[in-house]
């Protein structure tokens, strides 16, 4: 297991579950278990932060200046920068683009620190690579696609549906037969699945991107636009129309980036 995979495992470690295994009790009802879980949480964050800082990767808590420097060093470029006021304070909002991987990143500040951050992309996993280890939120897009992602290829046999009164074992058998034929069709035609997704962009953004790049392909031109939330915390005070705010901000993007994202004017 390489360092990137270890970082991912540390990130995903469920410290409360570990504490419960140690004591054999629930953290919800046992104070000692809760305390052990809290201690493990502090230790986990310390270890993770040290590794990420060593790799010049982003951490869960850091200043807007440090975060911005790290993502710019990794290849992102600023395509939109806005000042805004929230609760009497001057804040910043950024949207960046990574040209090599066609990644969109947005984040805002809160009292000089990076607040929320979101990363958007289209990605295709390599053959036999489980996407669950590397993706976060999102969904697969339609059917599979040709190797160059230029054409969508529907399966040649209809996906089975459960019929009223059908025994579950019978349906499961029909479903497995369909899966076997579908996998054979995908392999013969060298087809690829496409994941339309997003990641929390705060912690270990470089590690998360690198793992996706090593275990799949980022699409240069998006096939489907993810659900975008291009808002800062100042936009959500009172009534607001997120679609209109998104539209206004996207209109300010360079034309070549809008085309790569799938916006056609």
Task: Describe the fold and architecture.
By secondary structure, this protein is α+β, with helices and mostly antiparallel strands. The chain has three domains: 1-55; 61-141 and 194-265, no CATH class; 142-188, no CATH class. Helices cover 38% and strands 22% of the residues. The protein has eight helices and nine strands. It has helices at residues 3-12, 15-23, 31-54, 64-73, 168-188, 205-214, 242-250, 255-261, and strands spanning 76-86, 89-98, 103-110, 113-125, 137-140, 144-145, 152-153, 195-200, 216-218. Strands 1, 2, 3, 4, 5, 8 and 9 form a seven-stranded antiparallel sheet that branches. Strands 6-7 form a two-stranded antiparallel sheet. A hairpin with a 2-residue loop joins strand 1 (76-86) and strand 2. Helix 1 (3-12) packs across helix 6 and helix 2 packs across helix 3. The longest helix has 24 residues, at 31-54. The N and C termini lie far apart (46 Å). The mean pLDDT is 92.
Give a topology summary.
Elements: H1 3-12, H2 15-23, H3 31-54, H4 64-73, E1 76-86, E2 89-98, E3 103-110, E4 113-125, E5 137-140, E6 144-145, E7 152-153, H5 168-188, E8 195-200, H6 205-214, E9 216-218, H7 242-250, H8 255-261
Antiparallel strand pairs: 1-2, 2-3, 3-4, 4-8, 4-9, 5-8, 6-7
Helix pairs in contact: 1-6, 2-3
